Known about the structure:
The complex is a heterodimer.
Chain A: H1 3-33, E1 38-45, E2 50-58, E3 68-70, H2 74-82, E4 86-89, H3 96-105, E5 112-119, E6 122-130, H4 140-170, H5 177-188, H6 191-207
Antiparallel strand pairs in A: 1-2, 1-6, 2-3, 4-5, 5-6
Helix pairs in contact in A: 1-4, 5-6
Chain B: H1 38-42, E1 51-56, E2 71-77, E3 83-87, H2 96-107, E4 112-117, H3 126-140, E5 144-147, H4 157-169, E6 173-177, E7 194-199, E8 208-209, E9 217-220, E10 224-227, E11 233-237, H5 239-256, H6 262-272
Parallel strand pairs in B: 1-4, 1-5, 2-4, 5-6, 6-7, 7-9
Antiparallel strand pairs in B: 2-3, 8-9, 10-11
Amino acid sequence: MSDLRAAVAAGVFGAEDAYRSLLRATVEVARAIFHAKAASVFLLDEATEELVFEAVAGEGADTLVGQRFPADTGVAGWVLVTRQAIVVDDLTADTRFSREAAESTGFVPKGLMAVPLLAEDKALGVLEVLDRPQQSRFTLAEMELLGLFGNQAAIALDLLQRARRARAALDGEGELGALARIATRLEDGDEERRAAGLQLLAALEQLL
Amino acid sequence: MTVLAHEFEDEELPAWSLPAEASDSIRIRAGWPERVTPEWAWGGSTGAGVRVCVLDSGVELGHPLVGTVQRSVAARKQEDGTVVVEDDAEGDLCGHGTACAGIIRALAPDCELISVRVLGAGYTGSAAAMLSGLEWAIDEGFDVVNMSLSTTKKQYVDRLHELADVAYFKRTMLVASAHNMPVESFPWRFASVISVGSHELDDPRVFYANPTPPVEFFARGLNLDIAWLGGETITATGNSFATPHIAGMCALILAKHPELTPFQLKSVLHLTAANVR
């Protein structure tokens, strides 16, 4: 592996781990602040139109990461598609909604809060907080707090996705794979080839 | 009391400029009271005759809190990627649309409800479904369209803006949920719609005018008992549920004053807001 590639790879791999930890920390704090039973971040997989459990705190933390469900149904799907945050309480166990939730989370929640994770004009996923204590009335201040956590989770999710795309490029997958291969060859080639390659790239840059 | 009569519909009118001798031909009969009060605006109204469209996840038929739904359609994505709006019997894919319909029904028991389902066209088809559903609703000439939804997708914003302006001049009032954070999403940011955020009070008929838009009105949006799937009720919070409160108030006002344009309707809402009266 070339020095350049090794250096970039070290940065990218390290970043991916760090961003995953950041996301995990965000859902853990969200769960703790709201005294909730669980909190999760779902990532939108645009290729398959599914939501994927990316980080989970509390109930289901060990089993749910990586599980998927369709991105356009249920409350999480609604929040993702419409960009609107909602909070629902007093769910009973026998509704279709609760059954669907149970299938995706492993337990039947009595209530949930869900907020879209937005980065510029893209929806990246959804943050859900399940089963906060219901003895207290929900307030606008809590809604705002949920939004703030959503912002933080969206930034972490955005960074994580960028790191993954960078790794895919280094691995030769994805549309930037060719560029990564060119960079490697430039670094590995002899002086003459390298100079010619750089000249060609300069011409290409000018053309673009 | 009639505020503005539809006297002009079949006449040749100077639509693009006004010659001096034509000024009498566009005389608008104005019957505004000295003071616009809630009693004048919606007192005694049940929403009868007003057609309210719920652009949402569908509406569950037969829900006791929703009652009769005059028509249900869905925006469906075709194999070639286009979206068509056709009659639908699938009901509600989420519960949200049923909740919004129930809130409108509680405020305006005699209004007509029409459901346009824009959820279920796949994630990538969702914004196109929203646009097609809205276009259909405007073509149908509904009086009020409840839009407890928004998009951030930039490529759809111009068309959405255009449709919002068409609706405004065709006397279809779009009522849209605002974000509770400074997010660039639409259509609630457009001046031709009514944008709604939440207040914390329990009275469904109390709303506030916001002196610092883009959120224009605050309505009841917290800890509501609302209709949900399976004939159930749940407790819920969100601007999504504040929005149908304003849509319901629009239905009450329009039932009593069908001649109001969106511009005038918004003014009546402003004048009857709890912080303006």
